[in-house]
Amino acid sequence: MFITMTCNPKWEEIVSVLKPDEITNDRPDLVTRVFVGKLQHLLDELLKKGIFGEVVADIHVIEWQKRGLPHAHILLILHSDHKPQGPDEYDRMVSAELLDKDAHPTLFEVVTSYMLHGPYGTINRHCPCMADDICSKGYPKAFTEHTTDTIGSYPTYRRRDDGRTFER
Description:
Blueprint: E1 2-6, H1 12-15, H2 28-48, E2 55-64, E3 70-78, H3 87-93, H4 105-114, E4 130-131, E5 134-135
């Protein structure tokens, strides 16, 4: 499994201790401390609690993005008994669909605030992903009823057209 984690400058642990005249970039010490704490918590969930199964090998690296925020890349090798063996098992680990806002309001808020690509396209032609008026990352992704395996590439994750939409 390949997992990424990016520091969010809006995390409460960061913004709650900034002085009125400070911005996140003024406090790399604070940003780093909060990020490392959250990363350690994630690694504990992955490695000690085994939320995806038994991990037989792992490595992670931290780098700093152009905006100055820490970002981690985590590679996990799961024991063969715990590796997902096809689309149904991928769907138990990964979702590319919006949650029901009424059933899961807090998670809906987190996903729509921090985990969606954009805005881009005609709304924001200056977005870094834009090249020749097209998103270079391939968004928006097409709707598909089922997750499918792709040889030599990532799976195409289920993303059903259930009427749920979100605009910033």
